[in-house]
Design goal:
The complex is a heterodimer of chains A (647) and B (173). Chain A is α+β, with helices and mostly antiparallel strands. Helix content of chain A is 62%, strand content 11%. Chain A folds into 4 domains: 1-169, no CATH class; 173-417, no CATH class; 418-509 and 621-632, no CATH class; 512-609, no CATH class. Chain B is an alpha/beta fold and 173 residues long. Chain B has helices at residues 20-48, 55-60, 62-65, 140-144, 164-172, and strands spanning 49-54, 70-81, 86-92, 95-101, 115-123, 127-135. The chains are: A alpha+beta (647), B alpha/beta (173).
Chain lengths: 647, 173
């Protein structure tokens, strides 16, 4: 029943997507407006198909309908409700259902938002592009990754294993993938409008203005998705880190970098009318990279904690990536004459020059990461050599670029558009420069040492000074509205990036890690913190067996790192316990659990300063981008003004 | 009171591409910068490459590898804690290698039958000195890549199943 119903919804969505795509193309080419108006109905049908398929799968998981193969793979009667709900995206087919649901949501939102312009060819072509993307994902769900394939339940099969243990170990697993997908899939909207602008030849600023908020929305969720992923990794994997330059992590960072570059360079186009080719290329690259990221995550070409769903859809995604990339290049080339702009950047001391430099840096960073990520694939493809590119490559290449980005983050908002005098720049640089020096001084006073960390703290303080200067001035003039709008919201995002950078550098540079062998009642110290082994305990249910130890930190609260064995999978996973504060995190992992009650243990204690700043920084980035899409100035009621003047 | 709209047409600044010579100069500078960037990237990648070999491949390439750092993958066949570290045997593809682990002690989840990736280098072409042990969590990986991992066994193998050279050498370490 569930299988047939679910497949029926997928079929409905697939058919509606196909009809929407080809019907839309026909309507636009033939100029039949009445057909164009029907596109809205196809969007609704796609929405019903995607939502219906998703709901049916959730119902099947909760009902333990083991006639569906996918439910046999990820379902279990012992999985708690929250993880049971999240089980749908714990493997390939279900995660594609989530992808499709999000895409259908965006499609419907675009349809509703622009409902007043059903005959606008720009909107029509944008919808056609979105229908096309939707057709591709429904095609995958229809064929190679059909989540509703059913078969006879094998003899002796009583219960499924549930999701991968690592995906039922922390609440963040319920939020990280949906956030990431909202970001990934959200970039379909600006991409669709960009392609529509190329097809219609309306390559001016119209499509940029129409999609600005959608782009910010997608970028915000991608940012939050990445940060939550790092947090999940930190809380769950027990290695005390949050970013390992894992290929799949890198894959999420690539569209983020190009998307961030676009959000900056789009302002140059709006202000100066230049960089049209560059902007449209960035939008297309961002969307292409989201597909590339999906390929890396879902094809299983890399062995990683994320690549838990090796499958046959790799070639499909790669082909779609190639189609999107090459198609975009072709379209941009085709419209090259319309995209060329006559203007140029007049001075190096201008905001447009600073933004352009910022774009080069984001582009360079994306290129560095792309090469480092794909090099092992290329090496294996060429001569079968299996290798990996170790962390030092990413750290050493990324560090100078990161420093320059921090500097520009502080400098660019101070420079006016057009040309500026040295005197004006000097005047504006005063406060941020002092902030940078104060930041350096405070860092040294608090014991920070080392060339790179001190450079990072100084530049971060400089950037923070620049952002605060703008916010103070704005709030002074406009009260609470001083934090609204693109520029002010952007400054709050900058403050978030500063916090993130400081947290990253401090927690990486001053990490102290030590392993202790302890008997019950014993105390050890690390970095001025005392750890007392109070005792151990066991807990178990039908799903897991847990052996935990009680560690009293600084004669205060007790923390319980544990080793958890998942019965179904027979997998043992360490569960760290973390004490977080604004100043430092104390991270405890049980390397060796006691063999008997209160027996000796091996405990790893890690002290990392300012880790929480990463998560707060992420929150600021999300908050800032929300404020950035709100209007900074009150809407002027033109009708009222005219009426007043007339009377 | 509303702000008056500034309707003055914006002036585009004059083109700075300049004369032909200046243009060539710009190209030369850009090409030099890109070349320098490419060279630095090449150097960074070359020094950060870590090869990934199964036990049988690592043994076959022992002389070529010398003391170069690489990652070796295999199944833990025996494990023993010594005064100097942790000594164990890993196997794959019908070959066995002795490992002297001198890095951080492995965690509780490290056990016989466990699939591991160890990072380190050969010492005197005799044994592998490892600095880091990575334990794989996922069971699916093994099922999907039978060519990359052997079947998980439930316990350590007997001494009689270990290569005699390795057995002798493990006593010396």
């Amino acid at each position: 029943m569930n299988s047939a119903l679910g497949f029926g919804f997928v079929s409905l969505g697939f058919m509606a997507s196909l009809i929407g795509t080809f019907g839309g193309i026909y309507a636009l080419i033939s100029g039949k407006d009445f057909l164009l108006k029907t596109l809205r109905q196809w969007s609704w049908l796609i929405g019903i198909g995607a939502l219906g398929a998703f709901v049916v799968m959730e119902v099947a998981i909760f009902q333990r309908d083991y006639s569906i193969n996918y439910v046999r793979q990820v379902g279990s009667s012992s999985t708690p409700r929250l993880y049971n709900f999240a089980a749908i995206w714990s493997s390939l087919e279900g995660s594609l259902l989530l992808w499709m649901l999000v895409l259908a949501g965006f499609l419907l939102a675009v349809t509703i938002k622009f409902a007043s312009k059903p005959n606008d060819p720009l909107l029509g072509w944008a919808l056609v592009v979105m229908f096309g993307v939707s057709s591709f994902f429904f095609l995958i769900l229809f064929g190679p990754a059909n989540p509703f394939v059913s078969s006879e339940i094998p003899l002796g099969f009583i219960d499924g294993p549930g999701p991968n243990p690592l995906l039922q170990n922390h609440i963040l697993v319920a939020f990280h993938p949906p956030m990431l997908y909202l970001g990934y899939v959200g970039f379909t909207v600006p991409f669709a409008f960009a392609i529509a602008s190329l097809i219609t030849g309306r390559v001016g600023d119209g499509w940029l203005l129409a999609t600005r908020r959608w782009t910010v929305f997608a970028w915000t969720f991608l940012t939050l998705g990445i940060i939550l992923g790092a947090w999940w990794s930190y809380e769950v994997l027990g290695w005390g880190g949050f970013w390992a330059w894992d290929p799949v992590e890198n894959a999420s960072l690539l569209p983020w970098l190009t998307g961030t570059a676009f959000l900056h360079s789009v302002m140059i186009q709006q202000q100066r009318g230049i960089l049209r080719v560059w902007n449209i290329s960035l939008v297309c690259a961002t969307f292409s990279l989201t597909i590339f990221g999906t390929f890396l995550t879902r094809s299983g070409v890399f062995d990683s904690v994320h690549a838990f769903s090796e499958s046959a859809i790799g070639p499909w995604l790669l082909a779609f990536f190639a189609f999107v990339s090459l198609g975009s290049i072709f379209m941009i080339g085709w419209r090259g004459n319309l995209l060329s702009s006559k203007g140029a950047i007049s001075s190096f001391k201008s905001r447009e020059a600073a933004f352009l430099a910022n774009n080069f840096l984001f582009g360079a960073l994306a290129f560095i990461i792309l090469i480092g990520t794909t090099f092992p694939l290329l090496a294996e493809l060429i001569d079968g050599t299996q290798l990996t590119i170790a962390r030092p490559y990413f750290d050493s290449m990324g560090r100078p670029v990161g420093f320059m980005i921090l500097f520009l983050m502080g400098a660019a908002p101070l420079v006016p558009w057009g040309e500026s005098s040295t005197e004006l720049l000097r005047q504006r640089l005063n406060f941020p420069a002092v902030a940078g020096l104060v930041g350096l001084l405070i860092s040294v006073l608090f014991g920070a040492r080392g060339f790179y960390p001190l450079v990072a703290f100084t530049l971060a303080s400089f950037a923070a000074g620049s952002a605060l200067r703008q916010l103070f001035r704005s709030v002074k003039n406009q009260k609470f509205r001083g934090v609204l709008g693109r520029k002010n919201g952007g400054m709050i995002v900058h403050l978030g990036v500063v916090m993130l950078a400081v947290g990253l550098v401090a927690s990486e540079s001053y990490r102290v890690d030590q392993v202790f062998r302890m008997k019950v009642g014993e105390s050890v110290t690390l970095e001025g913190n005392s750890f007392e082994y109070v005792g151990s305990g066991d807990s178990e249910d039908s799903r897991v067996q847990t052996r935990f130890v009680k560690i009293k930190i600084n004669d205060n609260k007790i923390y319980e790192p544990a080793i958890t064995r998942y019965r179904r999978q027979g997998i043992v996973v360490p569960t760290p316990s973390v004490r977080s504060s604004l100043v430092k995190d104390i991270y405890l992992v049980l390397d060796e659990s006691p063999e008997e009650q209160d027996g000796p243990i091996r405990l790893r204690a890690i002290v990392r300063p300012l880790v929480i700043w990463l998560w707060i920084g992420g929150l600021f980035m999300g908050l800032g981008s929300l404020l950035a899409v709100l209007p900074a100035k009150k809407k002027v009621d033109l009708a009222a003004i005219v009426e007043a003047k007339t009377s | 009171m509303t702000e008056e709209l500034d309707l003055t047409p914006r002036e585009f600044s004059k083109d700075v591409t300049g004369s032909g010579i200046r243009s060539i100069k710009n190209w030369v500078i850009s090409a030099s910068l890109i070349s320098a960037f490419g060279f630095i990237m090449f150097q960074a990648i070359s020094s950060a490459r870590v090869f990934f070999l199964n036990v049988d491949e690592a043994i076959a390439k022992q002389s070529d590898l010398g003391e170069q750092e690489f990652r070796m993958q295999g199944l833990v066949l025996t494990e023993a804690e010594t005064e100097t570290g942790y000594v164990f045997v890993v196997g794959f593809g019908g070959e066995q290698a002795l490992v002297n682990h001198v890095g951080d002690e492995p965690t509780d989840i490290f056990e016989c039958g466990q699939n591991v990736v160890i990072e380190g280098h050969w010492v005197n072409s005799e044994y592998f000195e490892s600095q880091q042990i990575l334990v794989k969590h996922s069971e699916e990986y093994r099922e999907e890549y039978p060519d990359r991992t052997d079947t998980k066994s439930s316990s350590c193998i007997n001494d009689s199943e270990i290569n005699s050279d390795i057995l002798e050498l493990s006593g010396e370490i």
